[in-house]
Design a protein that fits this description.
Its EC number is 1.3.1.76. It catalyses: precorrin-2 + NAD(+) = sirohydrochlorin + NADH + 2 H(+). Keywords: NAD, Oxidoreductase, Porphyrin biosynthesis. It is an enzyme of class 1 (oxidoreductase). By secondary structure, the protein is an alpha/beta fold. The protein folds into three domains: about 100 residues, NAD(P)-binding Rossmann-like Domain (Rossmann fold); about 35 residues, Double Stranded RNA Binding Domain; about 80 residues, no CATH class. It has ten helices and seven strands. Strand 4, helix 3 and strand 5 form a beta-alpha-beta unit. The radius of gyration is 22 Å and the shape is elongated. The relative contact order is 0.08. Bound molecules: ligand SHN and 1,4-dihydronicotinamide adenine dinucleotide. The site of ligand SHN has 22 residues, from helix 1 and helix 4.
């Protein structure tokens, strides 16, 4: 059995060898997690060149060399050449660096799940490498069930929890409150954008703080979802 984990990647140096369709997808995922990304690609596409020019990643426009591994913590061998991928993996391992091999699930040290991301809520789907197409399909199904409302929902739950834990240590009472709130109508109030109903629901637990809490979470969420700030949609991959 594989061991699933969520890793902090902020500032962690990662190497992607091969910047084709797959390498670019891996690089984008790493960037979303804040990693420091280096891509080695002898014939970079215009998107990669633009990302390098914008300072999002470092691009080495040539074939892989063993020296590229220096300082790296994770490596992605994503060329279309099985022998080159195997060589990158071998070199990585000899330096004690974990390597993902695009065309060799069983030879990889780790592989990636399909992801649904709603703020701090992450749903990760793995088929153990058996069927990435099924992982992608399940990801799309889950995206439809777990709509954008889950982001403010989780933010509110997190803030209520922080508030209550700062005030008293009472695990039994807290458990009842949190279960009531996750099973109750909070999510549907969020979906209906009914701020007054949210405030009424939360007031018994956070008192006068409810109004400020609800309004600030909804406002931050609106700013985040404004067209100029919203994340690039995964159109190309979903088409
Ligand atoms: C083992 C793994 C290693 C790794 O890359 O980490 C791996 C390996 C391989 N993928 C292949 C093919 C495809 N991969 C996708 C898509 C994704 N692949 C991802 C992960 C993984 N892919 C890991 C296992 C994950 C698991 O547990 O299932 C996702 C989830 C995450 C991501 O990459 O970020 C992302 C979905 C993102 C999303 O949409 O949400 C599609 C879908 C499509 O493009 O339509 C296809 C075509 C359809 C098909 O083949 O099913 C091939 C064959 C290549 C060939 O045929 O030559 C291999 C190699 C092999 O199996 O030998
Ligand atoms: N893991 C996954 O999610 C998936 C894996 N694959 C597999 O991944 C591999 C790559 O697929 P694509 O990105 O679609 O191929 P692609 O042909 O678009 O990209 C491969 C890139 O690697 C570069 N390259 C070749 N040799 C290199 C070297 N020695 N050093 C650095 N760069 C080098 C090429 O210039 C090319 O741009 C294939 O083996 C494919 O079967 C395919 C689909 C999904």
């Amino acid at each position: 059995m594989n061991y699933p984990l969520f890793m902090h990647m902020e500032g962690i140096p990662c190497l992607v060898v091969g910047g084709g369709r797959v390498g670019l997808r891996k690089a984008r995922g790493l960037l979303s997690a804040g990693a420091r990304v280096v891509v080695v690609e002898p014939a970079p596409c215009s998107e990669l060149i633009r990302m390098a020019r914008d300072g999002l990643l470092e691009l080495r426009s040539r074939f892989f060399e063993a020296g590229d591994l220096e300082g790296m913590r994770l490596v992605f061998a994503a060329t279309h050449n099985a022998a080159a991928n195997a060589m990158v993996a071998r070199e990585s391992r000899s330096h004690g660096i974990f390597c993902n091999i695009a065309d060799d699930p069983s030879g990889s040290d780790f592989f990636l799940p399909a992801l649904v991301q709603r703020g701090d809520l992450t749903l990760a789907i793995s088929t153990g490498g058996r069927s990435p197409a099924l992982a992608r399909k399940l990801r799309m199904d889950l995206e439809a069930c777990f709509d954008e409302g889950y982001q403010p929902f989780l933010e509110i739950m997190g803030r209520v929890r922080q508030y209550l834990l700062a005030r008293e240590h009472n695990p039994d009472r807290h458990r009842d409150i949190f279960r009531f709130l996750v099973e109750g109508p909070l999510l549907s109030h969020i979906r209906n954008r009914d701020r007054q109903a949210m405030v009424r629901l939360l007031s018994p637990f956070v008192g006068d703080g409810a109004e400020e809490l609800v309004f600030s979470v909804i406002r931050d969420n609106d700013v985040r979802n404004a067209p100029e700030n919203s994340e690039r949609h995964r159109k190309e991959e979903d088409s």
